[in-house]
Amino acid sequence: MKFKKIVLASALALSTLMPVSGIQKASAADDAWKHWKDVCEQDDQCSTVSSMTMRKNQEGYGSYQKIEIISGAGVIMITDRGYVKAMKPGKAAIRAYTPEGKYMIVDLTVM
């Protein structure tokens, strides 16, 4: 009986150290996307919202007129060449502007 209590206590202690489940991660990602979708719908200059994944140290989004970080400045940065660079795992969002002045919001997940 004592052995069963030790095993149960150990299992409970380890469960508090386990990472967030995939369902909880998906829910948080959906919430962020919905937030940016709501922001976009309230602004006539916003054309769309997309969700993308980048790997750490990857660069992208260099073809836009201008890029602004609107969330997650510690996760991504804008290089001197105007590219978005993924610095560390986490969530971020950018506004990517076209030459016509419209922009899209990109919800980024850095792995």
What proportion strand? 35-45%
Shape: flat
Rg from Cα: 19 Å
Domain count: 1
Helix proportion range: 25-40%
Q: How far from one another are the termini? A: 44 Å
Structural class based on helices, strands and sheet pairing:
alpha+beta
Q: Give the strand order, joined by hyphens, for the main sheet.
A: 1-7-6-3
User: Can you count the beta strands?
Assistant: 7
Largest sheet: 4 strands, mixed
Query: Per CATH, what is the topology?
Result: Immunoglobulin-like
How many DSSP helices? 2
Overall pLDDT confidence: 81
Order of helices and strands: HHEEEEEEE
Contiguous low-pLDDT stretches (5 residues minimum) are 3-24
What would the keywords be for this entry?
four-stranded mixed sheet; 111 residues; 35% strand; disordered N terminus; three-stranded antiparallel sheet; alpha+beta; 2 helices; Immunoglobulin-like
